[in-house]
Amino acid sequence: MTHRMKRREFLTIPAAAIGGTLLYTLGGEAFRLQAQGNKQDGNIQVPLRFFTAEEARVVSAACARIFPSDSNGPGATEAAVVIYIDRQLAGPYGRDKYRYTKGPFIESLPEHGYQGKENPREIYRAGVQALGNFAALSLADQDAKLVSIEQSSFFRLLRTHTIEGMFADPMHGGNAGLIGWQLIGFPGPQMSYRNEIDKHFGQPFRPKPASLQQIMRRTGQPWEDEKT
């Protein structure tokens, strides 16, 4: 019996959007990404694990309206939030490995959490399809489209994942360049400030953000890479 291998799709993004964070933001795929970078136009092709290239463009455009770039700083596009979402949906979370998935399936109070049957992968697939050619719309039309679905399970997931992708540790694929942490002044998961004691009398102490991998000086395995 022969098996047809699924053709892998890629999202093309400006290399400058992920800057020097490439090696730890995208983990073991970094070297392949560097080799695939187009030196002429400064773009780089990011291997997608769940989305098709077209789906990734739609999700990226939607995330950019939820957390746009503005005078306060960069947003979801620059933080590579779509890569974070792609990684999560491809992993155990996307297939509801750790959620109770038996009926009854009901509409309940918000504080009870999601009570539906569809897993996150299914919610995204249907939601992205419903958005249609979203990336080609004007910004005003994109906003109107999102307002029209803001009570849906898909939009609630998308908004939550956009925020997560902005502020999670870069090992999960988002927060490229520690953009999110720089916006809010979060220094990263520092284990101790013992070495900084008695060094900053009378002056604000604002340490430069550092990822878990930078602090630990070794590569960690994010939970979305779980194989079983």
**Helix proportion:** 25-40%
Mean pLDDT: 85
- Quote the distance from N terminus to C terminus: 25 Å
Instruction: Tell me, briefly, the overall form.
Output: globular
**How much beta, percentage-wise?**
under 5%
Q: Which structural class is indicated by helix and strand composition?
A: mainly alpha
Query: Low-confidence segments, ≥5 residues, pLDDT <50?
Result: 1-5, 19-28, 30-39
Largest β-sheet summary: 2 strands, antiparallel
Integer-rounded radius of gyration: 19 Å
Identify the strand order in the major beta sheet: 1-2
Order of helices and strands: EHHEHHHHHHH
Count every beta strand, where a strand is a DSSP E run of 2 or more residues: 2
Q: What is the number of helices?
A: 9
Could you say how many structural domains there are in total?
Answer: 1
Highlighted features:
228 residues; globular; 9 helices; mainly alpha; two-stranded antiparallel sheet
General description of the model:
The protein is mainly α. The chain has one domain. The chain has helices at about 20-25, 30-35, 55-65, 80-90, 120-130, 140-150, 155-165, 180-185, 210-215; strands spanning about 10-15, 45. It has a two-stranded antiparallel sheet. The chain is globular and about 55 Å long.
Q: What are the SSEs and their pairings?
A:
Blueprint: E1 10-14, H1 22-25, H2 30-36, E2 43-47, H3 53-66, H4 81-90, H5 120-131, H6 139-148, H7 153-167, H8 179-184, H9 212-216
